[in-house]
Amino acid sequence: MKVLVIGGGGREHAIVWKVARSKKVTKIFCAPGNPGIAALAECVAIGVEDISGLADFARKNGIDLTIVGPELPLTMGIADEFARRGLKIFGPSKSAAILESSKVFSKELMKKYGIPTAASRIFTASEDAVEYLDAIGFPAVIKADGLCAGKGVIIAETRDAAMRAVTDIIDKKIFGAAGKEVVIEEFLRGEEVSILAFSDGETVRVMPASQDHKRIFDDDQGPNTGGMGAYSPVPFITESDISRIEKEILLPTVQAMKKEGRRYVGVLYAGLMITPKGIKVLEYNVRFGDPETQVVLPRLQNDLVEVIEQVIAGSLSSVKIETAKEAAVCVVAASNGYPGDYAGGCVINGLEDAGGIPGVVIFHAGTKRFDGKIVTAGGRVLGITALGNDLQGAITRAYAACRVVGFEGMQYRKDIGKKGLDVHSAKA
Ligand code: AMP
Ligand code: GLY
Predict the structure, then answer these.
(1) DSSP type of residue 167
(2) Is residue 153 within 6 Å of ligand 1 at its C-beta?
(3) Is 290 in the pocket of ligand 2 (CB under 6 A)?
(4) Ligand 1 atom 1: the closest Cα is on which residue?
């Protein structure tokens, strides 16, 4: 089979790496890819938003299956266009991708179908929000409805900060049309966990749980980022938690989408908060997570392409997900200054030596080739990933690799996976 993967970050490197292990696959293309991906796939210079260009490429090159990494093309309708042209693609239709592209839609869906989530209300006029804010208290969470490149969620500590956020979004339109409506919701306390599942529209199959680290600095300090690292498994999620998540969140979501005439086919990502009052949905994403995929796929024992074929055929019920016992840790190496401004073009050293450490894979996120060398070309540069016999083993290996790789100004968190270890020691 010939497979095309769409995207060019760490998540897509992990997808390509996993697809390369499929016994069914003879050739992989990636659009646009990156220098790490180029070791496994032929990279083609087509942007992720060039839907007709991608569909033309797939048709001309006899692509048997296209796998979409990022949300943007999904929310633009890439799955619909490929389907219209009779091309096989893995990812939800535009009408189903609304689960990520509209927070108003997803909150209303959860409310209508009794899926546990934070109490919330929707506002289109800033002056109406005050009363509700006072009722739920502070901190309060303000979310712009649409996609805002990860910046659309504001945790407001005070009434003033909350009102400022509402005015900025609704009246000053800092997010444009994405902020025509805002969701205001209660602040939930607890641990966040990411659950990724396959859905064929009827059935779900859950992949191993993982935890992202959103803040830039150790101990969850500093501003939010696209994700500074992840680990899997997550020891504070038990088997029975997973089956409750499946029965009370994932399946009801997929069934609700079907009832709404928005059959959901693809990866359903539930961002969950484990609260003292139960497990609640923070958000849905309609794709693999980044950097969660970098730890989930190395633990998935199944042939990814075979699973995807069953999803597309509507026969996911015949699939049993097999997970490796090993733990996985991904430490993101970022540019100096990220998540603020940063410079690119720094030469990256030690990639081969680090990749040679047993159990270590270096996924490229923001890199490019320049003058025969691999240089930084993004905020998040590498996902330094390791498998180990247990979480501590994976952490040790990943950080050994971090010490071998280097570029000017490289910054990374030193505590990825630590929360998982703390759970172990608390139980011991
Ligand atoms: P979202 O895009 O909705 O996941 O929001 C981004 C991040 O904001 C989440 O990963 C959480 O860390 C945080 N967040 C979102 N909603 C809430 C909430 N209701 N309570 C506490 N934190 C939240
Ligand atoms: N790790 C967060 C995301 O993929 O949206």
Answers:
(1) I
(2) yes
(3) yes
(4) 283
